[in-house]
Sequence to fold (307 residues):
Amino acid sequence: MSDDFRFLMIGAMYENGGNTTHRFLDGHPQMFVYPFESQPGTKYVNDMLSSLFPLKYRWPVFPLDSSPEQDYRLIIDEECKVRSRTPNVSKFRHIPFDFDDDDRSRIYQQYIAKTGRSRGANMSAFFRSTFDAWKDYKRSGRETVYVGYSPIITVDADKILNDLPQAHVLHVVRNPWSAFADTSKRPVPMSLENYILGWTLNQYYALLFKERYPDRFHIARTEDVMQDPRAALGKVCDKLGLETTSSLSKISWNGGELGQVFPWGTIRTPTPEVNRQTALELSAAQIEEIRLRARPYLESFDYKKFV
Fold:
């Protein structure tokens, strides 16, 4: 089943426009678009990047002696499980969402009973069962590709593409000045040094995997998505054999148009003007420090003259 599972995973460093791109894809009639951040990681992820990025954002690792039910419970998927199990504490409590996590678990186990356990089969079953269990999901009846989004999962793109032969990965990059200015608004923000380390690592992996998997790994700049989402994301749709539809021009959730991306992402108004103004909120010293630390990638993504 994982061999014929058509899948698009979006990855992006924090505040780089991953959630924004996810919302622009939401209304596409040929896509099953995951309702929140997918967060497929498990506590068994353990490598050199584990101390840098939260495990929930990584491609999962499952123990050999586990069971399908235990595998399901290991998948962190915090945003969806919190909205289902304790909706009053979810930041998405204001939206209708007829979904029972226990129903999804049962459906997931039914899929695994047919396929057996493997990382690819587990992830295929996870995304399929989500939409089987989502009772008020607005279907077009034409959906063929499942879409997920997890921050920083670009670093695991090779694992995704190897586990799922029909998968593609879309990496989203935003200029580091606007991105850091937005992450600085969080209650406990990352330092400039740590943030740009994560940003540069994501771009390193993106360029590496773009060269290694040129037909299945794609890159989009948030600036281009904001300028003309239909044109920028239409290129990705072409690679997937999907239509370039008018729905790509608006942000939505479950097909319903949104006034702003928040609380799905930190970016509220995805326009080029707001994006540039956000970068200019930084001090001159911060702007130059980011230029120094991100320099190798500014030319690669045509950001040298952004500020």
About this structure: The first strand starts at residue 7 and ends at 12. The domain at 2-298 is CATH 3.40.50.300 (Rossmann fold). Residues 192-212 form the longest helix (21 residues). The chain has one domain: 2-298.
